[in-house]
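Exam prep: given the inputs below (a chain plus FE2/S2 (inorganic) cluster), describe the expected output before reading on.
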Amino acid sequence: MGNSDGRKAMTRAASASRKPGRRRKQYACGPANLQPGERRLIEVDGKQVGIFNVNGEYYALHNRCPHMGGNLCAGPVSGTTLPAGPYQFVYARDNEILRCAWHGWEFEIATGICLVDPSIRARTYAVEVENGNLYLYI
Ligand code: FES
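Solution:
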């Protein structure tokens, strides 16, 4: 019961922070050094944020896992297995999934959605490329 209530509270808090009116545009870094599949951990406006280049698109996640607060952005980036028939192994979505190093929960980098429970999300930030630099909406 405690976990369920906590998850709902975190989801509500994350939703509230996504209101466009509460976001400010902040310089993050130059994009030239981030190649597809790479990430960079930066601090913006007092928040640790991981910026990821996923197949040429930039995404940003708060470096705090919604499970127990682990350093989410330090975990491995990989793909995941898809539902398949008996004795079948279907690996897909390479470089789109971030696995928390603490307990292995997996999150879609683009949305922050937890793969095993879509009601749980890591906080994400919109990323914009402008004049060769990356900006976050914090
Ligand atoms: S703190 Fe991330 S999976 Fe537990």
